[in-house]
Design a protein that fits this description.
The chain has about 150 residues and is mostly helical. Helices cover about 70% and strands about 5% of the residues. The chain has a two-stranded antiparallel sheet. About 10% of the residues are buried.
């Protein structure tokens, strides 16, 4: 298969990545408003406070945004995994469907999510070539840090 044939199979996941970014920013803004209104409402606990009611509504909105972000993220994982062969990856460990299910299945997601993200990171990078012309192993340190923060 030639490079041109591989690139014909490539479909960009940029739109999904932008959607994830926007959803996360909106989610953080709603979360911040919810915290501020919750603090105001708790400060006026003796009074009839509408701030707590609004904060409760914002909590529901934040949960819905979290769910929407998760769904869009899983569609991005599917697309990114499907694109790896078009990028020249020869060692893909997961099908796109297996990659998505790895995030959904309880307890499996604690390990498989990291494996999928590290595979996407390593296999989508250009190959590193040493002095002798041999390929060097790629590092996924940024994925390790991201996953550690996620688990914490």
């Amino acid at each position: 298969m030639t490079y041109a044939q591989n690139m014909q199979e490539f479909r960009s996941g940029r739109g999904r990545a932008v959607a994830i970014r926007v959803l996360m920013i909106v989610q953080l803004v709603v979360l911040g408003l919810s915290v501020v209104l919750g603090a105001i409402g708790l400060g006026q606990l003796g009074h009839d406070s509408a701030a707590l009611t609004v904060a409760g509504g914002l909590d529901v909105l934040e949960a819905l945004l979290f769910l929407a972000t998760g769904i869009v993220y899983l569609t991005w994982v599917y697309r990114a995994t499907a694109n790896l062969p078009a990028l020249g990856s020869m060692s893909v460990l997961f099908t796109p469907a297996m990659a998505v299910w790895g995030y959904i299945i309880p307890f499996v997601n604690l390990v498989r999510g990291h494996q999928v993200a590290a595979t996407i990171w390593r296999e989508s990078q250009p190959p590193a070539v040493g002095e002798g012309g041999f390929r060097l192993p790629r590092s996924a340190a940024i994925v390790n840090w991201w996953w550690a923060l996620f688990l914490v």
